[in-house]
Design goal:
single chain; 129 residues; mainly alpha
Length: 129
Amino acid sequence: MVASPSQVNFLLFCGIWTAVIAVPYLTLSPRYYPSAAHKFGILAAEVLTMIFWFSGFIALAVFITNLLFCRGNVCRAAQAATAFGAFSWYPSPLLELVLFAVTTALATMHVIRTRNGSTTAPPPQMEKV
């Protein structure tokens, strides 16, 4: 029995990390659990997710190029997946790159703007009409 390559396993981890940890934390904690939505936690989740996906793509690209032989549909599918991964990180107006860059930049700006203040802001005061 042959084990799957560690590069492929790492990309599986990236998908599970994103679906189970990053997206629920980044979307649900600010709204439903504000005490768990720490500004450094959100920034760390954003940056880690971006680094994981980028390094996973690089590892897979290196693995595919170092194969001694590559034949059949499985190899062509792996090469196509690597190419699409390269396009999503290439500086072009693709949705994935834009979303990663924008959300990471917003989290970084929030940390920089609130570095001397508290981690959560009090709710604004409501005036009577």
